[in-house]
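Record 1 of the preview.
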Amino acid sequence: MSRRRIDQWIQRIRNYRRERQFIASLKRLGVDFTCPKPDGRPEAWVKTVLEQAAWLSDSEYSSRLLKTQAQINALYSQINPHFLYNTLELIRSQALDRGVGEIAEMAEILANMFRYNISHPKKLATLSQEMENVKNYFLIQQYRFQDRFTLEELFDQEDEALMNCLIPRLSLQPIVENAVYHGLEQKPGKGTVQIRIFLTDERMVIRIADDGVGMSPDTAGRLRAALRQGVPYAGDGQDRRGIAIGNINQRLKLYYGEEYGLSFSSVEKSGTIVEMTVPRQYEADYFPAGYLPSKQAKQNSSPP
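->
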């Protein structure tokens, strides 16, 4: 066999190896090589496979990009709080030196809120921790609006089985903020936010109600449809209540499944009620007497 013929066979073997490696990499991405050949035409089948490969490659790249961006954001979040805490502590110290106790207290509350919102790596918090963050937020609003608003906690705060239940961090305060901003601020005179909490064997239901201005039937219908479809709702540009609600609703469904999440009802000029449903869960080292964790709760004890 001539040298030229030998070189041709060597090149074919190399090409074969490269093709095998390429196909293996596509399979790792999830390309389906068993998809039917449209109309029996090989070129159409090849086009389908390549389109799958392109789409999956873009998806993998996007996933890596998001992960990288999240890592960068995490680094920034570690840097910025130190400046914020130090600045708030300086404001607090200066206020105490000048005998301005209200400013010192507000600075301390803000520092606690920043610390809770930014510095905790865990995705889940106890109900007690979440309620402490809500109360800090509400204290700031009471200073701002000169005690126009009242927060009523209509549940047993001494019930350890209740207060140690786990929920996603930063899921309550944005709902209360919505109630204040969209409900109570628009209402003349005083206003109230009520929080009621109910436990069943497998679930915890949190109901947040305000006696604010409520929503029109049209606005409520569009927001309800957006929640059902899992898409953001930004209203008419001014009304942005759906952004926080939609974000929390999506987080709950991602963590726990479609049967959990948010629902609401609203009557114009009367107020709004938002209801959150989550599985009843506890830390691994804490279970109240008589409580048996459900299979669902065990499966979802660690959100993604």
